[in-house]
C-alpha cells in the first residue's frame, strides 16, 4: 500500500508555486528524523563548487533545482511510471560544506553520505560541481566492498590529472580519481557526449589505457542516440552501476546555466531519451551536477535539470 506520507502534494490540492520548496515537493527529513529509516531513495544537495576551474555558481544549483522541481508532477507519461508510489523518496536536505576548505568539505560530505548509505538509502546527489560525485563514489565503494560501473553523460571526461602540477582535485578529475582509488571498474565505465576544445589528449589517453569506453559526440551523432545508449548498456552489463549527469552534456542552447558549456551537444529531448534508455540497469546511485543559476536564462537550465532528475529517478526503478 502506498504510504501517503511520501506522496508529494498534487498541484490540484496545493498550487505548485505555494509552500516551502523541497525536491519534487517530497517530505523534507532531517538527519534525526526517524522516518529516514523508511526511505528507499534520498535526494540531497551538495551546494559546493570549490573545485570549479573557471566560472563558479554551481553552489547555488541545489536551491534553484528545488524550486524548479516543484513543477514536477506524479506520473511519467511516456513510461507510465509513478515513481513516488513505486518507492519511498524524500529530500534529505543539504550537506553543510565549507566554502573555503576543500578537504574539510569533502570529509563532511562523505560523513553525510556514509550515514545515508548506512540507513539503506540509495543516494541521489544534486550538485554542486562534479567533484562532488567523488564523495559518493568513495562511500559507495566502502559500503559495497567492490568497484562498480559508471554511465557518464557529460561533455567532458573529467579524467584529467590534478591541475598546476599539484595534488588538489578539481571538477576535471573525479573519475580519474575514482578509478585510481578503486571505486570504479574502468572496463565497466562508459562516457558519452565528449566534445569541445581541449588542453591536450591526456584525458582520452588515460581512459583508453584503462579500457574506459569513451563515445565522443561525433560517434554519438553518427550512431544515433538509441545505438549509443545500447553500447552503454552493453558496457555496464547487469552489474551495479552509478549514473552521473552533468548538465553541460546538453547543448547550451537548451542549458546555458553551467560553468563550462560546450556547443554541439544533444537537445533537451535527446538527453531525456538517453536517460530513459538506462531503465532496467542495476542503478546503485545517481547525480545531477553543474547547474549554475548565475549563468541561467529565465530558469530554463534549472527546469531542464529538474526534468532530467525526474527521468533519472524513473531510471533507478525497474
Care to give the gist of this entry?
This protein is an alpha/beta fold. It has 10 helices and 8 strands.
- Fourth-tier CATH superfamily name: Ureohydrolase domain
CATH topology: Arginase, Chain A
Specify Rg, calculated over alpha carbons: 18 Å
Task: Count up the helices.
Answer: 10
Uncertain segments are none
The major pleated sheet works out as:
8 strands, parallel
Q: H/E order of the elements?
A: EHHEHEHEHEHEHHEHEH
Q: What is the subunit arrangement here?
A: single chain
Strands, count: 8
CATH class: Alpha Beta
Strand order of the largest sheet: 2-1-3-8-7-4-5-6
Number of domains: 1
Shape: globular
Q: What fraction, in percent, of the residue positions are helical?
A: 25-40%
CATH architecture descriptor: 3-Layer(aba) Sandwich
Strand portion = 15-25%
What structural class do the secondary elements suggest? alpha/beta
What does it look like?
The protein is an alpha/beta fold and 318 residues long. The protein has one domain (8-315): Arginase, Chain A, CATH 3.40.800. 32% of the residues lie in helices and 17% in strands. It has ten helices and eight strands. It has an eight-stranded parallel sheet, sandwiched between helices. Helix 4 packs parallel to helix 5. The chain is globular. The model has no long low-confidence stretch (mean pLDDT 96).
Amino acid at each position: 500500500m502506498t504510504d501517503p506520507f511520501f506522496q508529494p502534494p498534487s498541484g490540484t490540492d496545493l498550487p505548485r508555486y505555494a509552500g516551502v520548496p523541497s525536491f519534487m515537493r517530497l517530505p523534507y527529513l532531517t538527519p534525526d528524523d526517524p522516518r529516514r529509516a523508511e526511505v528507499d531513495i534520498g535526494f540531497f544537495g551538495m551546494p559546493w563548487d570549490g573545485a570549479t576551474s573557471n566560472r563558479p555558481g554551481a553552489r547555488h544549483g541545489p536551491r534553484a533545482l528545488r524550486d524548479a522541481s516543484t513543477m514536477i508532477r506524479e506520473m511519467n507519461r511516456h513510461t507510465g511510471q509513478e515513481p513516488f508510489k513505486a518507492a519511498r523518496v524524500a529530500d534529505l536536505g543539504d550537506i553543510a560544506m565549507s566554502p573555503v576548505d576543500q578537504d574539510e568539505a569533502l570529509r563532511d560530505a562523505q560523513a553525510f553520505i556514509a550515514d545515508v548509505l548506512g540507513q539503506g538509502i540509495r543516494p541521489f546527489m544534486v550538485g554542486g560541481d562534479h567533484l562532488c560525485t567523488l564523495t559518493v563514489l568513495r562511500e559507495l565503494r566502502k559500503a559495497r566492498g567492490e568497484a562498480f560501473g559508471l554511465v557518464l553523460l557529460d561533455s567532458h571526461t573529467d579524467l584529467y590529472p590534478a591541475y598546476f602540477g599539484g595534488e588538489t582535485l578539481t571538477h576535471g578529475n573525479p573519475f580519474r580519481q575514482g578509478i585510481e582509488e578503486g571505486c570504479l571498474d574502468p572496463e565497466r565505465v562508459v562516457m558519452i557526449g565528449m566534445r569541445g576544445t581541449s588542453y591536450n589528449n591526456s584525458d582520452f589517453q588515460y581512459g583508453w589505457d584503462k579500457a574506459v569506453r569513451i563515445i565522443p559526440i561525433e560517434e554519438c551523432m553518427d550512431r544515433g542516440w538509441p545505438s549509443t545508449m545500447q553500447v552503454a548498456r552493453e558496457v555496464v552489463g547487469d552489474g551495479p552501476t552509478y549514473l552521473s549527469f552533468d548538465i553541460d552534456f546538453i547543448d547550451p542552447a537548451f542549458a546555458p546555466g553551467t560553468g563550462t558549456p560546450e556547443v554541439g551537444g544533444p537537445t533537451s529531448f535527446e538527453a531525456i531519451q538517453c536517460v530513459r534508455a538506462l531503465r532496467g540497469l542495476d542503478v546503485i546511485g545517481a547525480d545531477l551536477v553543474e547547474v549554475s543559476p548565475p549563468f541561467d536564462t529565465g530558469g530554463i537550465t534549472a527546469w531542464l535539470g529538474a526534468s532530467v532528475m525526474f527521468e533519472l529517478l524513473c531510471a533507478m526503478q525497474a
